Amino acid sequence: MLDEETLQALSDTHLNEIRFSIKMEDSAQKRKHILTKIALAKKYIPDVMVEMPVIPGTGDEMKSLLLELDRLDIFGINLLEFCFPLGNAQAFRDKGLELKNPPYEVYYNFWYAGGLAVAESEKLCLDLVKFAMEKNLKLGVHYCSLENKFTGQIYQQNHDQILNETYQFSPRDYYFKTAKVFGKDKVKVKKVLEKKYVPFTMNDHYNFLQFPIAAIPFLKNREVDIVISSNVVEMERNEQVIREVQLELTTPNMFVLEEV
After folding, report:
1. DSSP codes joined into one string, 124-188
2. Domain co-membership, 129 together with 165
3. Which end of the chain, N or C, is less packed with Cβ atoms under 10 Å?
4. Mean pLDDT per 10-residue run, the chain (260 residues)?
5. For residue 224, which of 258, 246, 197, 191 has the smallest C-alpha distance?
6. Host domain of residue 51
7. Taking the mean position of all CA atoms in its chain, how far away is CA 112?
8. Are 199 and 166 in contact (CB under 8 A)?
């Protein structure tokens, strides 16, 4: 449906980037039609991109596509790791596609229909990046893994949020981390934290004490069970909601701050 009139209107609004999807299962004629639209867009929009999942077994076709896109002098292509969907998985099984092993550990609803990564897609994506480098292609070639997509989302949700002093933003996975102790361990930990002037909160309903993970070394050689809680911030009706998405058990002697 993209035509010169529409592209001119988009250009008049100062749109500076447009992305196309090319489906490898389409006929050669249909793919050629999309390439014609891409060439047309180049006349009106500064940065023309292609973004598409990379399906195992399409290596030769993808390399030919990269060469063609380079000839069109577009800005770049974003190669997506192909994923098993959260629905209609049988259609993927019928094509002989399997899950990547080990799978990416998902413990949060990312609102993404992609599901889990398909085996061999990442390898082909990296082969295509290498191919572009060896051929000295002008267009940018970027690989976006499922892990990158999910990690990027968590960063965007959390990085500029302000929580109380018991939470720490993790530079490794971008979740907010906090430490919790339950039951009788609360009394022992509370005494140490008060002595060290460490902030903490008490939750009587669920019977736990919450404190910063950076204070765990103060409990060295004490026999207490500590739960490391990972959290993501969501906005509901303009209100900040902290959602706990993972719990990991540790002890003061097992804990390594740099790994959190």
Report:
1. HHHHHHHHHHHTT-SSEEEEE-HHHHHHHHHHHHHTT----TT-EE-TTT--EEEEEEETTHHHH
2. no
3. N
4. 96 97 93 96 98 96 97 98 87 92 84 86 98 98 95 95 97 96 96 97 96 96 95 92 96 92
5. 191
6. 4-155
7. 10
8. yes
The tokens of 155 are what?
A: 């960063």
Taking each helix axis from N to C end, the angle separating 59-71 and 121-134, rounded to the nearest 10 degrees, works out to: 40
Helix (H) or strand (E) holding 219: none
Rounded Cα gap, residues 105 and 135, in angstroms: 35
Based on the fold, state whether residues 122 and 19 are members of the same structural domain: yes
The total of structural domains in the chain comes to 2
pTM more than 0.70: yes
Query: Domain ends where: 109, 126, 155?
Result: 155
Terminal-residue alpha carbon distance, the chain: 49
